[in-house]
Amino acid sequence: MGFLELVAGRRSIRKYKNAPVEPEKLARCIEAARLAPSACNSQPWKYIAVTDTSVRDRLAAEAFNGIYKATQFAAAAPVIVAVAADKGNFTARIGNFVRHTSFYLIDIGISAENFCLQAAEEGLGTCMIGWFDEKKAARVLGVPAGVKLELLIAVGYPDEAPAPRPRKTVDEMSTFNAYR
Q1: What is the pTM of this model?
Q2: Is 132 left (phi over 0), alpha (psi -120 to 50) or beta?
Q3: The pLDDT of residue 98
Q4: How far apart, in whole angstroms, are the C-alpha atoms of residue 89 and residue 67?
Q5: Residue 39 and residue 23: Cα distance in Å, rounded?
Q6: Which 3 state secondary structure label does DSSP give 13?
Q7: How confident is the model at residue 91 (pLDDT cuts 50, 70, 90)?
Q8: Is residue 96 over pLDDT 70?
Q9: Domain at 11-159, CATH class
Q10: What is the chain's alpha carbon radius of gyration, rounded to the nearest angstrom?
Q11: CA–CA gap between residue 62 and residue 117 (Å, rounded)
Q12: Could you tell me which of 175, 83, 66 has the C-alpha nearest to residue 129?
């Protein structure tokens, strides 16, 4: 499969088969995430793969409750991966301040997309989730103070095949040489 075909075929999956994810597939996804570029090579991410059913169930009960119920579908995924972040190294933090840009969030996005694209290559489905109770999830996972859970990724074998979502045309989303 070519890269553009892989990217075009990746979907956010919200229904998963009741089948375990092989550790070697998960390891390749984490390796793809590890290889992502980052501002000043700060690599501000820490991946926590939750594969133990009891931990996953506790995480889901805490993270997807109350106002976060819309993301409860992730509780059915056999794996939930938490992506924690620090603010990057000193040089990256200076760049954050000068540019008023949180480069570490960009870095995490790139790394998480690498993870999800590798998962698609492995035949797995994923859904990146930003809507969850971060404080309760962090408590379940033992995340120390000063480190923030930025993202959860549901991972498993898809039990649905969502149709492609509408995309802007190339002409609508790009120009050459100036903003038009």
Answers
A1: 0.93
A2: beta
A3: 66
A4: 34
A5: 29
A6: coil
A7: low
A8: no
A9: alpha beta
A10: 17
A11: 27
A12: 83
